[in-house]
Amino acid sequence: MLSFENDYSRAAHPAVLEAVAEANNHLYSGYGSDELTEQAKAKIREACGQPDADVWFLVGGTQTNQVVIDTITPAYAGMITVASGHPNVHEAGAIEFSGHKVLTIPHHNGKMDPAELDEFCKTFYADGNYEHMVFPGSVYVSQSTEYGTIYSKAELQAIADVAHTYDMPLFVDGARLGYALTVTGSDMTLEDMANIADVFYIGGTKVGALFGEAIVFTKHNTPKHFLTRIKQHGALLAKGFVLGAQFDALFTDDLYFKIARNANEAADRIREALHAKGYTLTFEAPTNQIFVTMDQPTIDRLERDVKLGFTEKADDTHTVMRICTSWATTPEEVDQLIELL
Amino acid sequence: MLSFENDYSRAAHPAVLEAVAEANNHLYSGYGSDELTEQAKAKIREACGQPDADVWFLVGGTQTNQVVIDTITPAYAGMITVASGHPNVHEAGAIEFSGHKVLTIPHHNGKMDPAELDEFCKTFYADGNYEHMVFPGSVYVSQSTEYGTIYSKAELQAIADVAHTYDMPLFVDGARLGYALTVTGSDMTLEDMANIADVFYIGGTKVGALFGEAIVFTKHNTPKHFLTRIKQHGALLAKGFVLGAQFDALFTDDLYFKIARNANEAADRIREALHAKGYTLTFEAPTNQIFVTMDQPTIDRLERDVKLGFTEKADDTHTVMRICTSWATTPEEVDQLIELL
Amino acid sequence: MLSFENDYSRAAHPAVLEAVAEANNHLYSGYGSDELTEQAKAKIREACGQPDADVWFLVGGTQTNQVVIDTITPAYAGMITVASGHPNVHEAGAIEFSGHKVLTIPHHNGKMDPAELDEFCKTFYADGNYEHMVFPGSVYVSQSTEYGTIYSKAELQAIADVAHTYDMPLFVDGARLGYALTVTGSDMTLEDMANIADVFYIGGTKVGALFGEAIVFTKHNTPKHFLTRIKQHGALLAKGFVLGAQFDALFTDDLYFKIARNANEAADRIREALHAKGYTLTFEAPTNQIFVTMDQPTIDRLERDVKLGFTEKADDTHTVMRICTSWATTPEEVDQLIELL
Amino acid sequence: MLSFENDYSRAAHPAVLEAVAEANNHLYSGYGSDELTEQAKAKIREACGQPDADVWFLVGGTQTNQVVIDTITPAYAGMITVASGHPNVHEAGAIEFSGHKVLTIPHHNGKMDPAELDEFCKTFYADGNYEHMVFPGSVYVSQSTEYGTIYSKAELQAIADVAHTYDMPLFVDGARLGYALTVTGSDMTLEDMANIADVFYIGGTKVGALFGEAIVFTKHNTPKHFLTRIKQHGALLAKGFVLGAQFDALFTDDLYFKIARNANEAADRIREALHAKGYTLTFEAPTNQIFVTMDQPTIDRLERDVKLGFTEKADDTHTVMRICTSWATTPEEVDQLIELL
Fold first, then answer.
1. Predicted local distance difference test score (pLDDT) of residue D1
2. What is the maximum span of chain C, computed from C-alpha positions, in angstroms?
3. Cβ-defined contact of B67 to C235 (cutoff 8 Å)
4. How far is C65 from chain D (nearest CA, A)?
5. What's A277's domain CATH number?
6. Which of B170, B322, C169, C212 is the most exposed place for a label (fewest CB within 10 A)?
7. Does residue A171 register a pLDDT over 90?
8. The total number of structural domains that make up chain A
9. Which cofactor does it need (chains A, B, C, D) (predicted)?
């Protein structure tokens, strides 16, 4: 059965699997202290244009959000996100589990408005009782967002500027960073991201890896004893070299971005077909997630042949469904889907 | 200078102070294991009409909210409140500090709508991804609310009914319970509260005590080893008998409600004067907190002679101010305030 | 019935109660922002000989330990105490509840050996795997200890020196500080304590107050946004002025130390009688806690007339019992006890 | 260079890698809801002889310990381990991070004595102040232990019996379970383990997997909403099927135990050679970890050609070193090591 359900249904890009298999021919020391990991970090630093960046590999996205947010947010403070942000909705309270409140402002097709961020902080500090409240301590956005939308360089810089005004680091969740940066007409590069964000992660799980996310601290701002904090969160992989091997492969010959681009091209073709066939896109978004508002008969018909993702009920008779492409989507799969539409 | 700033500016009712002084003539065992505490608990059980209720005394409101919510909410779950609820806004993240997300629904002049509570839970369980989300685990309301409004018996019962449908206990924060239950025309008694809520507290700090809140578990539902949980939260008072002495005094000869009524009567007189003088009440509320939308010249004039509470900016030229009476407000103070208005 | 069970069985010294009653004649703003609290802080700063010290009032001992330790100990670190330390044994896991491991070294009649502290830290940093372990982050001792013993000035300084070598603050729990500093032959003053410790607290609960502990940060080292951290722990008293009133009284005319001395004098008399009558003191300790190893018939005989504290079984036929005097112990009570012995 | 440093230096058994590569030919749904995971669980249930056991796959050992211990231990309680237990020493405070105290009793070459466990609990409940203390809430042991020793069936049953007497579940950390169960002369099978323990895990990371641990709840005792708790801990792997594929391979044709046996056989040969050559084994232990007390010249000589693991300083001139074999150790590597000894 055809599936456009999500972007983590296939194990890994063949080059990644080969890198892991090749690693099997050697013995490595544990916990990421090996040379393969070092090599992967060096390649990422180079790709970021930041020879001094500090790179760490973790296993998964929620884990990465929890570890980063807990360690960059002061104990008296919370993390600000738009209400639709992944840590606010789909991480089972992982942030609160580590003791921090998630502070929310409205989203606009998944995006944060820097003016609203500023307003939120201004209101906080203007409140005579602010010492009885949770301080704004860090800012979280994702690139791309939960809605598949992306920030332009100027937009992200504006958010960073506001964050810094209130002495907060900006953390960018890049679970789908590859897809965000390879959109047709994107004005942002990995170097831009590294310049703007205080810390971000390059998602591997959804872009070709078996698993793995690469955290990049770009401003000599790694939390003290970060390895111990990772361990404390139960997030330190014994065979760190398995992460190193994967990211080494992904950052060799630009593989990460090449395969990411594939997802966007597939999505572009599907979007075109949807428009041509009169479907209602819930909103415009340029990356690998397409949200379509469909009536039930259409859904029933499609789901006989293709797995789609449920997002939410739009009204009594319509539902927002997600069509998600990935690095692994083939032209044939796109052809088949378009035919079915 | 006259003050209507809040309801915790004066130490304690004279009878409470006398009870503490009288306790000084005896030696008591520690941590609430004394006979004075037992006597106070018995009086509260009787006032609640629940011979089996389990009563505990803590020191303050945020502490009580933290201990109760943490212990009645499952580890995989959050606590639902209206967005204006005290634990969501003015407790510095005490709930999240103990690991639980605060889940919010809109408020209506501070009150929760049972239909919206139901909708929230229904939507949660209808979401295919709900296992990745924070479960609704308990419901928090306050009586009276942050806006001085109150729930009728039927309204509170409706909330309890929804909560129980989803297997959640209803916790009622009664920091100002005395004021809520003695409003002219209130249809709810302490017995009603004890029948409806699964756990609630009777606020002493704002109603005549030096400090102290009496938690009442009404359904044989005290969390296991609750004393240990209190201690773990750093909330167990060594000289528990000082709490016992105070609540014993407050629940002797109906003192608690008599002095609470005084605050409402004072507030009624002030509300009448405000209406007569053409002030704009921000909204109608019957208890000891009066919210008035004032322009800056009025505020400046009043604040020369009387301390009021700042609530929030209403617009560029108006501010919502709070006039707060208490058990200690004298008719003379009310007279003076009315003259100033 | 006579009681030497503990030092928190009587409400408060009359002067403290009067101060609270007097406070009742005024209106104060909340949360310790009042002038009475400010005045009490000034008196404590003066008594400490530290005009710049930062003073805070909390309600109880476990609460104070939890708030201070959580806020001075880095997130990747634990707090070091001797195994018999109160937070390790009798605080229901309050430190771990706030996320920190309690690291233990042996005690010697309740006291920490600076050489063993040094050895613990040296061993930690010598371990190749130390990044996988809990860092030593702060040092906790109490003065007097759980065993009623005290540190000399040189001993405490030696512990502070080791702590500082490893970049750890020294926190001194002074629940019984009054008793420790007024021992006959004590070589330490409150000024010495303020010079040596990075943060300590002056216990009120056990030395004349209804409740209350005064935290003193002596090195411009108050944790950032400490008020918010207190609130987050549920530990901020609404009527902070009730704490202010009490400590203002205790630090007027040296009352705190005068009444503390009474406990030691009473204990000295009892110790003398115990020696004279051939009792076996479990070990020598100069403060208000006397530990005596008794056989069961003796215990049975004494407990007909006087409440003592159980400490632990010494062997199959002997038990360690505690005789505890306090600021409130009268010469008559001591006479009666001696007669019974 | 030869390495006997640890048992997680090589990526994975070829059959495991093949299984992952084969998984790459299919699309799977996320978070362990796929058929491959289901198949692996079925094989483990069968190997355990428990058709009703509940099996879950996590990524790493500390993570598994944190998630299991946090979810099986009541909030008012701690987890009991011997002092040398991994969560007490080498998990960076992961248990305390989730709010629980680690309660310790002495170890005997890494093992727990059931009589001492009983004594600990008896003493706890006999203490008049036990409600102010951390309750014993769960028991943790590992099979094999940190010292490479193992429990016999009777010994483990005795610990389980004591645990159950005090209403505590017994959790067995099986990071090296394969090695423990395949020791020459072992009297325990996986079925025995499943019968005795309330919950245990089958370690994959150290026995042939890239990563992964299989938790088995054997008594219909899975914590409520366990998937949500896993997610909350940041421990839910998006591509759960990668875990499923590995354990499916490991539990096909008894692979897990076959490759585990290899490590023990290699260790047996090394032990024999050590004895023959007059080395001092620190203590006797039958599994894949050999602890040898060596003088510095010997260590210096060996480390020119082979990586060993440092354990601890024995005295000023001797050090305890660890020689660790694994599923991947070849006869040639053993030959080379023996020659060097």
1. 85
2. 63
3. no
4. 14
5. 3.90.1150.10
6. B322
7. yes
8. 2
9. pyridoxal 5'-phosphate
